[in-house]
């Protein structure tokens, strides 16, 4: 198990990680998520003794990494796939690492096989693609057959087949009872890989919970409704009834309606009342990606703006301005697609985990601007 308590790291006046407390349990894949610059790599480096915490502690199996007996046999990590001598072949790179850690040389061929690099084992790694480099980094992490594994963005540069392979590998390693801690930006990937999530923003803990609970607590449910095709009047009648009853209705390109703010039985009742037949009425949840975006929106360090093009003339427009997602509701259609979020719609629902607030413990480090739920609106 990995255990962090009050973990803090400052670089000069920059606080990269602030007061992080969490546990990473064995037998599970724990996803470590956060926007760019959130502090994921810094945290992983502190776990591995590569950075010294400014405050707090982090241990693996009760020991700080540097105190761990025979650490390379207990902990394997992929931090930076480029951290290798490009002039060496994949095999000799791994052989060097094995020798340094007292690992038998035959293990090198085993891990090359596991990551699918046997055929290029004699080639210099500087000619490797990003994906091959990632595979070599994963091979190095597996060398000591460790019980604890840390992977920083392991699917970076991998093609879909490679991504699936990493996913299966992580699941298999956790299934063998190992502790697997993996950072990623890809929520969709984590949804399929992780059992548990630790989410940070601006170095602070924002969520620590099972994937399923994360989705349930952070996603706004919605109903998808379909009225008989070609019966526009029926559809308009239903939209009016739903919006008058407090629902928000969005037309989807496939002809269905996305309804929020009303329970399914209520939608059914209203449809019955206005005599509209339904071809579909189904419950849905926002994806993990949507929940994550909403949670971390206020803690993003890097934001893009629309390209103003310095007054340059834009490319020619299609004659009718291109496709715009229609907005259904009473009144004239609004420009720009979806209407603005309503109060309580798109914001974290009641009961959602409250992100780490202002510090309670006096501290030398300057906390980063605390995340405020209103930032996400
Ligand atoms: N050695 C360093 N010196 C100064 N600042 C640093 C150092 N290492 C990290 N930082 C800063 O700390 C913050 C956290 O960086 P970190 O790399 O841990 O984030 P991350 O979540 O891993 O980001 P990414 O997903 O983009 O890799 C960033 O603002 C970064 O610029």
TrEMBL record:
GO terms for molecular function: ATP binding; ATP hydrolysis activity. The keyword Protein biosynthesis does not apply. Residues 320-331 have a biased composition (Low complexity). It holds the Pfam family ABC_tran. Residues 308-377 are annotated as: Disordered. Keywords: ATP-binding, Nucleotide-binding, Transport. The keyword Transport applies. It comes from the Bacteria. Belongs to the ABC transporter superfamily. This is ABC transporter ATP-binding protein.
């Amino acid at each position: 198990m990995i255990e962090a308590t009050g973990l803090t790291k400052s670089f000069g006046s920059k606080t990269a990680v602030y007061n992080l407390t969490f546990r990473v349990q064995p037998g599970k894949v724990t996803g470590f998520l956060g926007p760019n610059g959130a502090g994921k790599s810094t945290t992983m480096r502190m776990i591995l003794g590569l950075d010294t915490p400014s405050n707090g502690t982090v241990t693996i199996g009760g020991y700080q990494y540097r105190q761990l007996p025979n650490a390379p046999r207990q902990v394997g990590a992929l931090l930076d796939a480029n951290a290798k001598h490009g002039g060496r072949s994949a095999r000799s790179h791994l052989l060097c690492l094995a020798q340094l850690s007292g690992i038998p040389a035959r293990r090198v061929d085993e891990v090359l096989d596991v990551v699918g690099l046997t055929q290029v084992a004699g080639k210099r790694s500087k000619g490797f693609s990003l994906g091959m480099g990632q595979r070599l980094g994963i091979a190095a992490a597996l060398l000591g057959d460790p019980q604890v594994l840390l992977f920083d963005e392991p699917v970076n540069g991998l093609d879909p087949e490679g991504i699936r392979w990493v996913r299966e590998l992580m699941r298999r390693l956790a299934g063998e009872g190992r502790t697997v801690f993996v950072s990623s930006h890809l929520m969709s990937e984590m949804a399929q890989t992780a059992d548990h999530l630790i989410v940070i923003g601006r170095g602070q803990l924002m969520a620590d919970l099972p994937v399923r609970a994360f989705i349930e607590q952070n996603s706004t449910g919605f109903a998808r409704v379909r009225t008989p095709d070609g019966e526009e009047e029926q559809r308009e009648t239903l939209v009016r009834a739903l919006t008058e009853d407090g629902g928000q209705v969005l037309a989807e390109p496939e002809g269905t309606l996305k309804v929020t703010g009303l329970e399914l039985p209520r939608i059914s009742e209203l449809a019955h009342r206005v005599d509209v037949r339904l071809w579909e009425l189904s419950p849905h949840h926002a994806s993990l990606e949507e929940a994550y975006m909403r949670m971390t929106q206020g803690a993003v360090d890097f934001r893009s703006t629309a390209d103003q093009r310095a007054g340059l003339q834009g490319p020619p427009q299609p004659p009718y301005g291109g496709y715009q997602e229609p907005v259904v509701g009473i009144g004239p259609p609004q420009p720009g697609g979806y209407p603005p979020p309503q109060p309580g719609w798109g914001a974290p629902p009641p009961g959602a985990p409250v992100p780490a607030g202002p510090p309670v413990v006096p501290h030398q480090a300057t906390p980063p601007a605390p995340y405020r739920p209103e930032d996400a609106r």
